[in-house]
Structure formats: structure tokens, C-alpha cells
Amino acid sequence: MSGRPRVLFVDDEPRILDGLRRSLRGRRAEWDMEFATSGALALELLARTPFDVVVSDMRMPGMDGAELLAETSRAHPHAARVVLSGHIEPEAIVEVAMAGHRFLIKPSDAESVTAVIEQLLVHTSASHARAARRLAGAVQSVPVLPGHAEHVAGLRAPDTGLETAVRAATGDIGLAAKLLQLSTSRFFGGRPRNSSVESIVHAMGAPMVQAVAAAGERLAPAGWHPGAGPLLEAAWRHAMATARLVERVASPANRPHAQAAALLQDIGRLVCLAGTDATPATVDLAAGTRDGVPFRDVAVELLHLWGVPAPVVAAVAHRDTPHRPEPAGLGVAGALRTAHLLVEQARSGPAAGDHEQELALLLDHPQLRAQATDWRRAAGEALRQAEPPACAAHSCTVPAGRWETKG
Amino acid sequence: MTDVSAILEAVEATVPAGVALLDDRLRPVRHNAAYAALTGSFPELPAPLLDALETVVRTGEPVAGLRVANGSGQRGTWRADCRPVPGGVCLVLTDVTDLVTAEAFRTALMEDTAEGLYTVDSEGRLTSVNRAACEMLGRSAQDLLGRPAHELTHRPAGGGTHPPGGAPPGPAAMVDEVLVRADGSTFQVVCSVVPLQAGAGSPGTLVTFRDVTEARQADIEAHHDQKLESLGRLSAGLAHEINTPIQFVGDNTRFLADAYRDMWQLLVVYRECMAHELGELAWDERTARARKAEEVADVEYLVAEIPVAVQQTLEGVERVASLVRAMKSFTYKDTAEQSYADLNEAIRTTLTVARNEVKYVADVHLDLAELPEVMCHRGDLNQVFLNLLVNAADALEGRAERGEIRISSRLAGDTVVIRFADNGSGIPAHLQQSIFDPFFTTKGVGKGSGQGLALARAVLDRHGGSIAVESVPGEGTTFTLRLPVNGRREP
Q1: Does residue A118 sit in the same domain as residue A137?
Q2: Residue-range definition of the domain harbouring residue A29
Q3: Of B32, B275, B299, B463, which one has the fewest beta carbons inside 10 Å?
Q4: Three-class DSSP category at B410
Q5: DSSP secondary-structure letter at B191?
Q6: DSSP 3-state assignment of B317?
Q7: Bridge-partner residues for A123, per DSSP?
Q8: Domain contains A1
Q9: Would you say the ipTM is above 0.95?
Q10: Are B476 and B426 in contact (CB under 8 A)?
């Protein structure tokens, strides 16, 4: 494939394509652009040559945009998927939410379209750019953890209230991630006050959250990696405890982002251990890689594709990197790193001496010393409160997908 | 004539009642034929009657007018009269089943029914009135009986009258009237007025009526709801129809700005080439510079594209403008009076505002004949056209191939005939009668409230026109509207 990124635009209205072709003409030296007037034509072009980004209208005769993008995610997972639509039918909105990465409303000026395409042309993983994109790109929804279905089950009642929805979304990592993605677009509800799960649920309304959760359940994976049970359980508990603790560690302004980052920190593990029917995957549990790509690289690529706010993506990316705090404040990444280390220690005991020095430095930060809190005790408390639901503790009998296991 | 027993025997044989003589243990001693006929199918007298007979024997007191069910589960009522006689009891049984039924019927009509009912004599004076009528009129029966009905229940100069000389014979039609309560307030009713031949007396009239004030109010609200429902559905489509041109007008304008900049830069180079400061510079060199600049600017492309971009921009602006015009025309607010309107124009307008509802599922063919202007409520007819168009599109939704909707208009004498035909799934024969019923819908929840066709029929009725459906399952459906050119003839 040539060096130039390739972008495919799909719209049944030729005038729209003409307009895009002309207004994006300034990019002709950087991108190869193709234009298709139907979903079928777009799939033909995709089959012929790979594209990096597909920008599609939603309502089209024959194959509509949601179908096209869903098919793209199956057959061409490396292609980032952008919705550019004037209106989405209420009946189709959830399909769109699952199939798309980014969502632009018509009219969108050329600058916004260009900006989104340029972001999507960036690959976050330095060493595994294409493989990480392929793994993350195939994801339409992050699956509900085995044994944790009752968090979202509460959403099935027809008259679910906002409180139930908030509780469900903070207890389910995948739902929280999807809501964070959708909150960046006005297709799915009002503008949330901040990126906390609570504000997002309030802005979207319970029915939309219910619909999204139901669609996520429909996309549940065929199975999980055979050794996944304990790892997934640990990831869930760690996420819940860290999210609880980081509420107090982060500065008030950073709390929403830090909470989101804590929930999503191990999303790569969920995504990589969930089976897909299409391709047998190679997972190395010890190294934490799938097809040689570290889980974390897949997580960061996914959050980037989904347009999750940059501070959240950065915090997830750097969770395992030693943090040297700025005197001005811990920031989102520093808060997550601190909470992560505290919970990790509370779980495995003080023997994890590796990070003791770093943790001491972090706890010595003025932002934390200002609170009269015994942070290690608070971490133990948070971990105890993050008890898994009764059924999950025992049900590590997880349906297995097609796997080749190494090591 | 002194043979009493002969007389008694004659009486016994003649009276239309069962007569029996029972001994003191209530065993029959003798009875007439009528008694045998009455009790024949019942092996035992009913228990309450036996109780009464025993009491008569014991106390020697007669019992009169006792009503008992005839027992054994067969419907019927007897009247029993028991009188003690030496050594037993005489029982007279009469079948009063018809009487009891008539009484129950009368009670239901006069006391229990929610419909108002009254009768008047040939002078129009009230001869009977039921409870519901009293309640609706806010008057007591004593207040009403014997007084002239018309004066009491109508506004002094009001419309609707009881026809003088009683109602015409035969089954009555329901008519609308406005009645007045005792306090002077009014309410809308539908009533039927029928002649009542009460025996030998002069002809009277029976009037029944029902208060429809709330129902009429609900109709108006349903009409309004249906308009809001279709507007809600339209608004999303309209947003799409407007946002599409806005998107490409914006893109083209942005291109024109870039193109202007490129052209300007080219012009700057040309000016430089022409500047005499270049002095000795050879002509070849100047043309080479100009050609290079033209290449950078991609002049051929710009020259070809700029006019097209301008044309498409104007086209987009016109699309939005015509849509806004159509929306304004579509939401035309009817006054109480009808006015003459171009129905072909109304059809085109409706098609414009509903384009987004239709364009993904069907091609629309218009076949509009030249029509005179028609006396109508234009806004209401727009709504009818919209409902039919959306129904047709819904009938075609989800099919493998694009459907077809044909809309035609014709003039037949002084009637305009408009047809909406689709080649969709059709309506099963057993549902064709129900489709005009309010709240009848086969669409999913949230897709339609089932008022569209009911509303269409109501609107056509108001115009003195009609709406009819022909449908062949699997082949399609045609709705035919007929409208008198000069509006509804006043009755």
C-alpha cells in the first residue's frame, strides 16, 4: 500500500460528495480520497483496496450506513468509521452507536471533518500501529463481564430511572466506555456537564442508556479466553476500587476524567480476552498480549478511535508508567497512577516494594497531604467495598471461544 | 242459573290462570287445564311457593300477589294467590313472565340507561322522561312533565326543532342538536326522534339523545394530536432535507473561497509577469512563470469546477427556500370559512414536505389533470394528503425493491377525484372496513396512533366528499377521494 492515507466518503446524495470533494481538495496532496454513492459500492471499493477512514451517511436506499459500517467493522476492522449524517432515525440510532467510531452531524464544516479524519489517521501504538488498530477497530461494544450481567440487567425494566442507569453504568466497564464515546456526539442526547458517568447518563436519559446496554448485550462475544476468568474478575474489582479511591485522590476538576480513566484502565484486557468468531486469536496471558500486541496498546487505540477525552486516554496509556508529579497538581494521570498503586498494594500486601518509593513520593504531594486521610487504609476500604457480586465470585466457568494459547 | 258448581266449573275452565285445590298436606285434589299446562313441565312446585302454601294452611291467612320464579331453571315468573279453604288451600297461578320483562325493560330505560329519553304528546307536552334526561337537563321529572318540551330544552331562537305534527314515520336518523339546561348552559347532543303511537291517543313522539360535548371535544383534540404527531415525524425528515443542502452549500462555498484565493495568487503572478520592473526578462521566461503558476493553481480544474460549484450552491439554496415555502403552505392555518384552493398545488406541497419520508422507499409519479379551484379547508386537506402519502410509504417500507406511489387528480363533472395508489403489501379484506376506525393501526408502537385515516374520513365528510379504499393483498392499495368543487351543499 502506498504511503498516502486513504479516505472513503459514502453518501447517496451526489451533491454532498461533490461538495466534500471540492471543500477537501486542499488535502488532495496528503490523502487519497474516494467517493461512493451507495453502501454496496463502498464495500466493493473496500474489498479492492484498504482504506484508513470511512465517512458515511446513515440513511441511504438499499444498504444503510449502519449496515455498511457494521460490515466494515467485520471485514475491514483497520478502517476507522465516521458517521456524517443529518438525522438518525430513532429506530436506527443504537445500531449506529455500535457501528461507528465518531459521529458528525450535518452540516459539519470542512474543518471539523478534516480534524476528525486527521485524528483517526494517528495510530497510538508506536510499535504495533496496524495490529492495534485492527484489534481495536473490530470492537463495536465492550462486552459485559461474565457473572456481572446483573449490573445491566437492572436496565431491562421498562421504567428504569436515572439512578438505576447511573448505577448500572458505573458497575459495567463496557457500558461506561460506550457512554463516554457517545457523549461526544449530540445524536445521542444533550451535552453532559462533565465526563463523569453520572452526568453522561443524566444528559442522555435512561431510555437511551437502556437501548445502548441492550444493543451491547446483543453483541456479546461468542466466548472468552479459557484462562480469562480470574483475570477479568481481578480487572473488574481493581477498576471499581480504583474508581472509588480516585474520587478522593483527584482534584475536584479532574474527578470526572479520573473516574472514567479508573473504570476504563483495563479495558484492553476485556477486549482482547473476548472471543471473536471470525479470527482465532493468539493470546499470551503472562505477557498480556493478543497477537503480540499488549492489551494496553489495544485499550488506548480503542479509546482514541472512540474519541474519548484525551486526558482519559493519556491516563490509561500511562497507568503503568512511573509518575513524577508536577508540583502544581497530580493531574488525571497522576491521580490514576496513585490510586492504582494504592489499590494494588492493598490487595497484594506491602511486599510489592517495587513502587514503594514512587508511591511515597506521590503520597507526599501537597494535593494529598492537604487531606487528613490515611491513604493506604482508604485503599483497603475501597477494595473491600468493591466486592464482586455473589454469582461472579464462583462462576469462573466461562464459555470458551476459539483460541490458540501460548505459554 | 243456580247450579253453582256448573258455574264454578265454567269459570275454572275459562280463566286464563291455573287454578288448583290442594289438601292440607298440599297434595293436589283437583286442578284445571291451565294449571296442568303451567306446571306440567315442573314436577315440583318451587320451594318459596310451598313455604307460602304451608303458611296459609297453618295460619289460615291468605297470601296474594306472590311472585316466584317457576323453578327448574327455566326462565319465567308466576304470580301466586293462595286462599285457605276447608281442608286445604286454593292456589291460583298466573304466568307474569312478559310483564316482569317489560317492567325490567322500562326500569332500565327510565332509571338506569345513560341515554336521555322522553316522550311528548301531539301538542309537544312531555308525557314521560327518564332519569338520565332529567340529569342532563338539570330538571326534575315533576318540573318537566306536562310542559312543552321544545321551550324547555331549546334556546329561544335556537336551531333544531321537533318537527311539527310529530316525527315522520319509519326509522329515524341521528341528528345533531344543542339542548339547554335549567341553568341556561348548553350541551351538544345527537338525538333520534321517532313517532310513538300510544294506543288510541293522538300521535306522540319519542326522543332519545346522548350528550356528545366531551366526545366532540375529544375529536378536536385527537385532530390536533394527529397533526402534532405527523409534524413530529415530519420535522426530523425536514431537518434532514434542510441539512443536506446546507452541508453541500457550505462545502461548495468553502471551495469557492479556496478557489478565489488560488485564482488571486495566480493573478498576482500574472501581474508580476506583466510588471515592467522585470525589464529585460524574456517573454519565454514570463510565460513559463505564468504557466507554472497556472499548474500550481490547477486552473483547468478551477475553470471547470467553479461554475458547477456556484450552480450547485444556488441549487442548494433554492432547495431550502422551496422547502421553507412548502412548509409554510403546508401548515396553512384554515379559517372557519372554506376558500377556493388549487388541490394540485396542495399535493405537490405535501410531497415536498414529506419527501424524506418517501424517497428511500418509493418513486412517486404525479399524474395531475387540470383542475378548477376547489372550495375547501386547505390545511385539513394537506393533512389528509400527508396521511395517505405516509401510509403508502409505510406500506412499501422494508420491501426488497423500491415501490411506486401514483397520485392522480381528475375532474368528473363537478367532483374532483384524487387517487393515492401504492403497489405495497395491500390490506387484507377483513381489515378493510376497520381502517377508517379511530385508533385502528397495524403499525408498531410509536409509529402511528391510528388516527390518520379516521381523520381523513372526518375531513372528507365535512367537505361533503368521500374517501374509499380498494386493496388487493400483495398488489397494492388505492385510496380514492371525491370532493365537490363548490364545497358542501348546505342542507
Answers
A1: no
A2: 6-122
A3: B275
A4: strand
A5: E
A6: helix
A7: none
A8: no
A9: no
A10: yes
